[in-house]
Structure prediction request, 64 residues.
Amino acid sequence: MSERQPNDKERKCAICGKPQDPGFRPFCSKRCADIDLGRWLKEGYAIPGGEPPPEESTNDNEDI
Ligand SMILES: [Zn+2]
Prediction:
């Protein structure tokens, strides 16, 4: 089952709402693509509740 949805008219840039450019889908231009990428990276770096896991290396069982 494959339904084709002719939503080409509804395909707008997720950043500014302009019609998408085939070369920069799903955006209208490289600029908007960069903006989205920047947001994505920011969210990626800004980890909510960023508490690093405690690295406890107390398993020094080298005395066999
Ligand atoms: Zn745009």
